[in-house]
């Protein structure tokens, strides 16, 4: 029977402390290492260590030194080694900090919708500030890479990380709801936005923009439904966990047979999802209910007149009287908050507007601002729209739940009763 070979390196030999000053050795990770030439010996045996010293450093000055001199030189060699190790650790720390800094800048560039090329401008500003505050640290700032390519890769890495975190949270959802909205960007490209809100077994809620799907070509019901399905596959959302889907009021969404609603029920029969239209804010219907059109048309005409004729002179007038506002606002019909903001701005600047038109000898353009009855209606609608805008803002944003929205609506109804009284 063959005998088992003996492995010397697995015998757990102890390192003799005398070998440190006798042969200028130190304990490495698994092997003894020479302090002079930084070579390692196979095992912790004094014979191997002494043989290395005799063969490699026989003719050196270390062999003729006394015990005291050897111990002093060992300490000196140890300090030099420690200094080299600390230097490389410091370099690694600076490089890690520089990488972290570039990620911070890239994250803020993406968060604020800035161009990726702005990273180079940010670095230039950092270096100039460093010249003033801490010139000795300029090399550290110089190592921060903020080129266009680097910022792009950083943003892509952050995006993948956030997507991975969201996917992990979605996997823990017990129930979730999805909100869908179709928008068009500045390039006239239709996009389908999917928002998700879910709750896990610990009743912790998560609300995020889950994904954005491009609708290339047509935006028919089948196209929207296909992108919806692909979005769910990407996010790994189980249909059985969806308890609500909120859609907008477009015909391609609300059709019970050929619309998104009908396609969803056909493809997922027996689903437990409640399909809802988005909440139509009452302030969007306020103008028709209160017969606000005459006042609104007059205010819009007044604003358009100011901005189309002698606009610069009007702004100069506001600047000369040190007005709180520098201009009037355009009215945008598609924005729910626009009417209230326009009314409030014109009301604040009504005296300056009257003075401006009188100077231009165009009193007829602003005669309604000198009509007491019209001003009463204008003031009423301005106050009402401002209160509705405040309500609208309270109902928007992340982490708004039905009990919070209901509390705001109930409080607003009580305010209306007070206003009526």
UniProtKB/TrEMBL annotation:
Superkingdom as given in the UniProt entry: Eukaryota
PANTHER family given in the database record: EPM2A-INTERACTING PROTEIN 1, GENERAL TRANSCRIPTION FACTOR II-I REPEAT DOMAIN-CONTAINING PROTEIN 2A-LIKE PROTEIN
Protein name: General transcription factor II-I repeat domain-containing protein 2A
């Amino acid at each position: 029977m063959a005998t088992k070979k003996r492995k010397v390196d697995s015998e757990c030999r102890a390192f003799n402390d005398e070998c440190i000053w006798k042969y200028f050795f130190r304990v490495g990770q698994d092997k003894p290492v020479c302090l002079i030439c930084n070579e390692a010996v196979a095992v912790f045996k004094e014979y191997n260590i002494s043989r290395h010293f005799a063969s490699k450093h026989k003719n050196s000055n270390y062999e003729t030194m006394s015990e005291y001199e050897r111990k002093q030189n060992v300490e000196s060699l140890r300090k030099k080694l420690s200094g080299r190790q600390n230097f490389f650790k410091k370099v690694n720390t600076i490089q890690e900090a520089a990488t972290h800094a570039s990620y911070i800048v890239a994250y803020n560039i993406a968060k604020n919708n800035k161009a990726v090329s702005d990273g180079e401008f940010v670095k230039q500003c950092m270096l100039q500030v460093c010249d003033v505050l801490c010139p000795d640290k300029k090399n550290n700032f110089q190592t921060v890479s903020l080129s266009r390519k680097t910022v792009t890769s950083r943003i892509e890495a952050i995006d993948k990380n956030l997507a991975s975190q969201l996917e992990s949270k979605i996997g823990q959802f017990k129930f979730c709801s999805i909100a869908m909205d179709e928008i068009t960007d500045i390039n006239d490209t239709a996009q389908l936005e999917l928002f998700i809100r879910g709750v896990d077994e610990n009743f912790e809620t998560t609300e995020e923009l889950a994904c954005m799907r491009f609708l290339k070509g047509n935006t028919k019901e089948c196209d929207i439904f296909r992108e919806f399905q692909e979005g769910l596959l990407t996010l790994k959302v189980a249909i059985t966990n969806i308890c609500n889907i909120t859609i907008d009021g477009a015909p391609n969404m609300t059709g019970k047979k050929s619309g998104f609603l009908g396609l969803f029920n056909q493809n997922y029969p027996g689903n437990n999802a409640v399909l809802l239209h988005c909440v139509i804010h009452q302030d969007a219907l306020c103008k028709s209910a209160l017969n606000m059109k005459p006042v609104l048309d007059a205010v819009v005409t007044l604003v358009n007149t100011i901005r189309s004729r002698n606009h610069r002179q009007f702004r100069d007038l506001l600047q000369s009287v040190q007005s709180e506002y520098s201009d009037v606002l355009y009215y945008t019909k598609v924005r729910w908050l626009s009417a209230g903001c326009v009314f409030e701005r014109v009301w604040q600047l009504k005296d300056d507007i009257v003075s401006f038109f009188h100077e231009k000898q165009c009193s007829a353009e602003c005669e309604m601002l000198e009509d007491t009855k019209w001003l009463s209606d204008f003031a009423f609608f301005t106050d009402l729209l401002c209160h509705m805008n405040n309500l609208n803002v309270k109902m928007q944003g992340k982490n708004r739940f039905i009990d919070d929205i209901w509390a705001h609506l109930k409080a607003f109804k009580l305010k209306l009763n007070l206003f009526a009284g």
